[in-house]
Design goal:
The chain has 498 residues and is of the alpha/beta class. It has helices at residues 38-46, 60-69, 73-76, 92-98, 152-155, 163-187, 213-216, 236-245, 252-282, 314-317, 344-352, 366-370, 440-451, 456-480; strands spanning 13-20, 48-54, 104-107, 122-124, 158-161, 197-205, 210-211, 289-295, 321-324, 333-340, 379-385, 399-405, 408-413, 419-422, 496-497. The chain has one domain: Alkaline Phosphatase, subunit A (3-Layer(aba) Sandwich). Helix 6 (163-187) packs parallel to helix 9.
C-alpha cells in the first residue's frame, strides 16, 4: 500500500541519472535477453517503467536543453550541437532552487556558451568538450572521428578503451563522494540542510563503439547482426543520409564488433549507475529519494542499415525512462503512455512542490506514474533541424519533425515525402503507409499537428541567420582563446584499440 512521505521529509531528495545515447530496447527491463543491466533492472522493479518515452531531438544538445526548459527546440531556437540556450530562459533547476533546493550536477551537461550551469548551483567534473562555438574538436588520437556519425566509428570498433569511459568513472566516483558529504552534513544536525537535487551526467554508451575486454568479450558471438532489414525502397532522405555518412554497405564483421562493444558499454554504464545507487542505499537516503534514469536519445545500432542517432525511428528517438519513489509511486509497474523528456522537469517540480516553469511545453506525468488510468494526451514530438555547419553535415541543412499520436508516427521531412507508421501493427516501422491513398486523410491530420506553431520555412531562415552568427563566434574563439569552465581533461593516450 502506498504512503505519503513522512512529515519530516515532505519534499523528496531528487537523483537524476542521465546517460548518453542509450537506446531504450538494450536493457533487461526493456526485454533484451542478452545485455546485462542488473542495476537498471533492479531500479525498474522498485519503480515505474515508461515504454513510450521520446527525446525532444535525436541529437545531444537540443535534447538536453529542452529537457532543462521543458520547451521544444523550436520554442527556444536551440536545434544543433552548436546552439546556445539563452540564459534568461528558466530551467527546472531554477524552479527547484526557488523551492529551496540547491541543485548540483556531476558530469555531463553539453551546454554551449558561457553559461555552464543553467540553474545548477554547483557543478563537478564537467564535460570532455569545449564550451565554445567553433572551438577545436577534442583529440581522441586513434579514435578521432569515431564519436561522430562517420564510417570510421564502425571501422575502428571492438575491444579497447575510450576517454568517455574514464570520464564516467570519475563522474560516478564524484557523485558518490557528493552524496557522502551531503549525508555527513545532515548527520551533523545541520537543521538548515535542505533535500538534495543531484544530477549525474554520464557519457556511455555513446560511441566510440569501443569497450574494455571484460565488457566486450562476454558479448562476442552473443550479439548478432541487426534484426530489421533495410527496406527494399529506401526513403529519399535516408538514402541521402547513407551516402553522406558512408554506410551504404557495412561489412558484417564491423557491424558485429560495433554492436558487441555497444552492449559492453551499456553493461559498464549499468555498473556505474549501480555504484551511485548503492551509495544512496548505504547512506540511508534511498527511501526518501525520487530517482529518475533516462538518456538524451538512442542509437540505431545498424537496424535498417542505419547507425548512431539523427532519425526518428524508435531505436534513435525513444529513450529509457524509469522513475522510482519509494512509498509514493508503485513498484514494478509499466506505463504505455506516449510522453517526452520535456515532461520530466514538470514532473519533478510537481513532486518537489516547486513553481511551474513559465512557457513550458511539457507536462507533469506524476499522476500517470501513480495510476495508469490517469488522464493523459498520448501525443509527443521530436525535432531534427540542422544548419549544415557540423563537420558531418557536409553543408546539408535539414528541417524535420516527428509526431507520435497514440499508435501513429508521422515524420515530416522538409523537401521530401513524409512517412507514416502504425506502431501497433508494425512496431519495427517496416511499412511506410504514407504513399497509400487510404491514409491520406490521417496524414493530413497528423501534418496539421506537426505544423502547429512550427513553420519549417521560418526555421530554415532562422538556421541560416544563426549560422552566420556562429561563424563570427568561431572566429572570436580562435582569436581570443577563452578558457573553458567545468571542463574534464581528456587525454589522447587514454584512447586505444587492441
Amino acid at each position: 500500500m502506498l504512503t505519503t512521505p513522512s512529515p519530516a521529509r515532505r519534499k523528496p531528495h531528487i537523483l537524476f541519472l542521465m546517460s548518453d545515447q542509450h537506446t531504450q530496447k538494450v536493457a533487461g527491463c526493456y526485454g533484451d535477453a542478452v545485455v546485462r543491466t542488473p542495476h537498471l533492472d533492479r531500479l525498474a522493479t522498485r519503480g515505474v517503467v515508461f515504454d513510450n518515452a521520446y527525446c525532444p531531438s535525436p541529437i545531444c544538445t537540443p535534447s538536453r536543453m529542452s529537457l532543462l526548459t521543458a520547451r521544444w527546440p523550436s520554442s527556444q531556437s536551440c536545434w544543433t550541437n552548436a546552439d546556445m540556450l539563452p540564459s534568461d530562459i528558466p530551467t527546472y533547476l531554477h524552479a527547484l532552487g526557488a523551492a529551496g533546493y540547491r541543485p548540483a550536477l556531476v558530469g555531463r551537461l553539453h551546454a554551449i556558451g558561457p553559461d555552464q550551469l543553467h540553474g545548477y548551483a554547483e557543478r563537478e567534473v564537467g564535460d570532455h568538450s569545449s564550451n565554445w562555438v567553433g572551438a577545436t574538436t577534442h583529440d581522441m588520437g586513434v579514435l578521432n572521428r569515431t564519436n561522430d556519425p562517420f564510417r570510421t566509428s564502425l571501422e575502428r570498433s571492438g575491444q579497447g578503451q575510450s576517454s568517455y569511459e574514464l570520464h564516467d568513472v570519475d563522474v560516478a566516483d564524484a557523485a558518490c563522494q557528493w552524496l557522502s558529504r551531503y549525508a555527513q552534513r545532515a548527520a551533523s544536525g545541520d537543521t538548515q540542510e535542505h533535500p538534495f537535487a543531484l544530477g549525474v551526467g554520464l557519457m556511455l554508451p555513446h560511441q566510440p563503439y569501443v569497450a574494455r575486454a571484460e565488457d566486450y568479450q562476454p558479448y562476442v558471438g552473443k550479439v548478432g547482426l541487426p534484426e530489421i532489414p533495410r527496406p527494399p525502397e529506401d526513403h529519399a532522405y535516408l538514402q541521402h543520409w547513407r551516402n553522406i555518412t558512408g554506410i551504404e554497405a557495412v561489412p558484417e564483421d564491423q557491424q558485429l564488433r560495433a554492436r558487441a562493444a555497444y552492449y559492453g558499454l551499456t553493461t559498464r554504464l549499468d555498473a556505474l549507475v549501480g555504484k551511485v545507487l548503492a551509495q544512496l542505499d548505504a547512506l540511508g537516503l534511498a527511501d526518501d529519494t525520487l530517482v529518475v534514469y533516462s538518456s538524451d536519445h538512442g542509437d540505431q545500432l545498424g537496424e535498417r542499415g542505419l547507425w548512431w542517432k539523427q532519425t526518428f525511428f524508435d531505436e534513435s528517438a525513444k529513450v529509457p525512462l524509469i522513475v522510482a519513489w519509494p512509498g509514493v509511486l508503485p513498484a514494478g509497474e509499466r506505463r504505455a503512455q506516449v510522453l517526452n523528456l520535456l515532461d520530466v522537469g514538470p514532473t519533478l517540480l510537481e513532486a518537489a512542490g516547486a513553481p511551474a516553469l513559465p512557457g513550458a511545453d511539457g507536462n507533469s506525468f506524476l499522476a500517470v506514474a501513480r495510476d495508469a488510468a490517469a488522464p493523459w494526451l498520448d501525443v509527443s514530438y521530436s525535432e531534427y533541424c540542422t544548419d549544415g555547419s557540423a563537420r558531418w553535415d557536409q553543408g546539408n541543412a535539414v528541417v524535420q519533425r516527428m509526431v507520435r499520436a497514440d499508435r501513429w508516427k508521422y515524420i515530416y521531412y522538409h523537401g521530401y515525402a513524409p512517412q507514416l507508421f502504425d506502431l501497433k501493427t508494425d512496431p519495427q516501422e517496416a511499412h511506410d503507409l504514407a504513399p497509400d491513398p487510404a491514409y491520406a486523410q490521417l496524414c493530413r491530420q497528423l501534418l496539421a499537428l506537426v505544423r502547429a506553431r512550427w513553420d519549417p520555412e521560418q526555421i530554415a531562415s532562422t538556421l541560416v541567420a544563426k549560422r552566420a552568427e556562429k561563424t563570427l563566434l568561431g572566429q572570436w574563439w580562435r582569436t581570443v582563446q577563452p578558457p573553458d569552465a567545468h571542463r574534464w581533461q581528456l587525454k589522447v593516450e587514454d584512447n586505444w584499440i587492441s
